[in-house]
DNA sequence: TCAATCGGACATTCAACTTC
DNA sequence: AAGTTGAATGTCCGATTGAG
């Protein structure tokens, strides 16, 4: 769509000379691919390469279970912004990734020049094993036990109750931007944040403006819940609206249990199917609460 | 009007495969 | 062994729906 933002792509631009392009410390909020549809180019049309500059959508490596269920944007912090917003920070847990199946035969690849290395034309039909793990017959039969059908390996999880507040900022791997880390909130900047576009959830397209200190300083929450999102900057305590239109955290001094955390009554049990009690099977069964279960919608292979 | 739902586009991961 | 390919798997945009 009209999601063309000059900055947004620069961080992941395959063309850029350095893979680890940094967002330059220009306090620009991170821009995501989606901007309100605006028909404008960052540069005069003449300077733009013919193809419509389509920014690349960025995604977190691992969405929390709540965002995952709601199919909404998550972030790297835990609890994530969205969970905090909905007052379900306690429920903000990294989802578990399913282990990829092994032993799937793939057939010859086609090379760039077009021809495919035709090893042999035999179809690789897939036999579903008792465990429900599809294993190509070729493999199942031919390979004695080289690749034992690997059932979903036990997920590696954090110790119960342990979710590092902020894992050390990833060393800006290519394609990843280490910009959401709390340090940046430690120093409120004088200038008001640039107007932020908001996502459909009212989530800032960028990240929380620096008026918000890391709650680590301010909130009496147990450390595992204290985050930069949870408490407004003192200067804004009186205000009821965050500048980014986010719901303010309840003025309460405790992290109110989920429903009460809403500034106004959430009629239909918040979007977050997240309400722990409400974790229900989606009718299409695309989420089942645990990553090891059914694929969420969209997980199905594309044609 | 605004939040919840969800189809499907898009991004990422990583084992199979190919080439050197 | 290193590089490439491409399907599996995951994220989340944005249209739609429906409650208040
Ligand atoms: Zn989240
Ligand atoms: Zn979360």
From TrEMBL:
UniProt entry tagged with the keyword DNA-binding: yes
Region Disordered, residue ranges: 1-25, 97-117
Domain of life of the native organism: Eukaryota
The keyword Zinc is assigned to this record: yes
Assigned keywords, A-Z: DNA-binding, Metal-binding, Nucleus, Transcription, Transcription regulation, Zinc
Annotated GO MF terms: DNA binding; DNA-binding transcription factor activity, RNA polymerase II-specific; zinc ion binding
Location of the Zn(2)-C6 fungal-type domain: 63-92
CDD domains tied to this protein: GAL4
SUPFAM superfamilies per record: Zn2/Cys6 DNA-binding domain
InterPro entries referenced in this protein's UniProt entry, alphabetically: ERT1_acuK_gluconeogen_tf, Zn2-C6_fun-type_DNA-bd_sf, Zn2Cys6_DnaBD
Residue spans crossing the bilayer: none
PANTHER family, alphabetized: FUNGAL TRANSCRIPTIONAL REGULATORY PROTEIN, N-TERMINAL DOMAIN-CONTAINING PROTEIN, ZN(II)2CYS6 TRANSCRIPTION FACTOR (EUROFUNG)-RELATED
Protein name: Transcription activator of gluconeogenesis ERT1
Organism: Lentinus brumalis
């Amino acid at each position: 769509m009209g999601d063309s933002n000059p900055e947004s792509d620069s961080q992941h631009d395959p063309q850029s000379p350095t893979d680890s392009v940094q967002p330059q410390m220009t306090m620009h909020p991170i821009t995501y691919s989606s901007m309100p549809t605006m028909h404008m180019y960052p540069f005069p049309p003449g300077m733009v390469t013919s193809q419509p500059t389509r920014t690349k959508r960025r995604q977190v490596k691992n969405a929390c279970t709540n965002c995952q269920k709601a199919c909404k944007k998550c972030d790297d912090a835990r609890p994530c912004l969205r969970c905090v917003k909905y007052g379900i920070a306690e429920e903000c847990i990294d989802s578990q990734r399913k282990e990829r199946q092994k032993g799937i035969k793939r057939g010859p690849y086609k090379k760039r020049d077009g021809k495919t290395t035709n090893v042999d034309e035999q179809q690789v039909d897939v036999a579903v094993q008792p465990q429900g793990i599809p294993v190509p017959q070729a493999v199942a039969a031919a390979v004695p036990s080289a690749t034992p059908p690997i059932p979903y390996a036990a997920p590696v999880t954090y110790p119960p109750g342990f979710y590092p507040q902020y894992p050390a900022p990833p060393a800006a791997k290519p394609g990843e931007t280490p910009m959401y880390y709390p340090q940046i909130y430690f120093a409120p900047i004088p200038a008001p944040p640039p107007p932020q576009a908001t996502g459909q959830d009212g989530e800032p397209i960028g990240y929380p403006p620096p008026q918000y200190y890391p709650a680590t300083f301010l909130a009496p929450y147990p450390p595992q819940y204290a985050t930069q999102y949870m408490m407004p900057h003192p200067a804004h305590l009186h205000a009821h609206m965050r500048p980014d239109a986010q719901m303010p955290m309840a003025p309460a001094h405790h992290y109110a249990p989920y429903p009460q955390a809403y500034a106004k009554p959430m009629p239909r049990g918040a979007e977050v199917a997240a309400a722990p009690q409400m974790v229900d099977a989606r009718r299409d069964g695309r989420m089942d609460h645990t990553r090891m279960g059914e694929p969420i919608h969209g997980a199905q292979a594309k044609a």
